[in-house]
Each structure stands twice: as C-alpha cells, then as structure tokens.
Amino acid sequence: MNFFSKLFGKKNTQEEKKIRSNRDSISTESKTVTQKEEDHELYPFLSQIDYEGLIPNNFIVPFLDHYNSDEPKVVISYVTSTQDDLWMLDSNDQTEEQFRLIMDTAQINIEKLELKYTTQKVFDHKVIGFQRHTFTCEKILDQNFMIHIQKELNADSILVSIPRRSKMLICDQGAEETIKSKFMNFHYATYLSDEEDIEQICEDVFVIKNGEIEGVLYMNQDHKKN
Predict the structure, then answer these.
(1) Which positions ≥6 away from 152 have C-beta within 8 Å?
(2) How far apart are CA 171 and CA 119, in angstroms?
C-alpha cells in the first residue's frame, strides 16, 4: 500500500457510483421529502462548476458566497443516493420552497453521516485523515463536525483540504511550519496527480475556526499545470 493509500484509507471495493440527472427522483408533500420506489437519500454534492455531470439547468449554488462569487468554481449541487447510483437533481419544476426543503434535508443527512478518521503519525499526529466515502468532502459543510475535529486536534483553528472526490485531510493550523508545509505539499500533489482516477474538487485549502470558514489559502500558481 503506497503513502497516499495509507493516509486516505482503502478505496471502496464497491463499483464506482454513476452520476445521472434525474428531476423526478424526489417529490415533496406536506413539507416532507418523500421516497419513490427506491431508498433515496438526499445529499449535497461538491464539484467544480464544469464537472461533466452538471447540466445548465441543474440545481446548484456557490460553495461560499464570498469565495469566487462572481464566477464560482466550486459549487454545491444536490443528489439522491441509492446503493448503486447517484442522481443529480434537476431544477425543472422545482419551486423555491422545494429548493429550500431539498437543501435542508440534504444538510441533515450530511450531518448524520459518520466517518472514521485517524491522526497521522507521519504528521506527528497534527493531521487527521478520513475514511474514503462518496460524501467525505461534503463533511466540510457540517459545522459541528468541523468543531469536533478542531477539538480532537486541540487546535485554535484548522486547515481543511478537499482536493478530490472522497478525500479530506485536516491539519492543526498552529502546527509547526514543517508539518504545515508537508500538509500543503500533500494537498497539491493529490489535487494535481495524474494518477488519481477520481475527479478534482478544490485546489485551495480552507481555514476553519469554530465550524466557520474564515479564510482561503489559494494554491500557489507555480503548482498549477500549464
């Protein structure tokens, strides 16, 4: 098992879930999201705005209002998850009230999602790696979970890396510079690696304190591909 695999954990043996567009996968009734035929679960879904699964009329919102808000690169769309597939929700025929209900229900589900994690010896236990799961990156939207991880690291604030689908790494912002430098280099390597078979999510690292995103560490332009 290579260093990347050790840090992020084994990849799920289950076949990769397919992403589809399906505007009929949910319905709303009496302010409750109802299920249709299959056991659907609503989740937020982070991706780059040009991700091939997105289509122009999909229901998407910027990841952060103040983060590249003019032309948001990272967006949140919403999906229903079954055992085998992910279905992206389409904006057709959805009212504003239904949008809000979808967003609220997806947020509840991501907060209920449990992830296994471990502190990393190679980073002097100042960095936490997470179980690989389809929605690992989306846990950055769970403020209580971010607060929990901050306390786990005994940190005043944390650095959160979500470079690719199913991968997240969190570092104590107060860690020694050598550890933070290694953390950032690992983030860059994961985001830019041609060997990864899962889509890129975000090239930047987020500074989070008490569950709130307070800043962004933008990726050094020298690391970007030509």
Answers:
(1) 119, 128
(2) 10
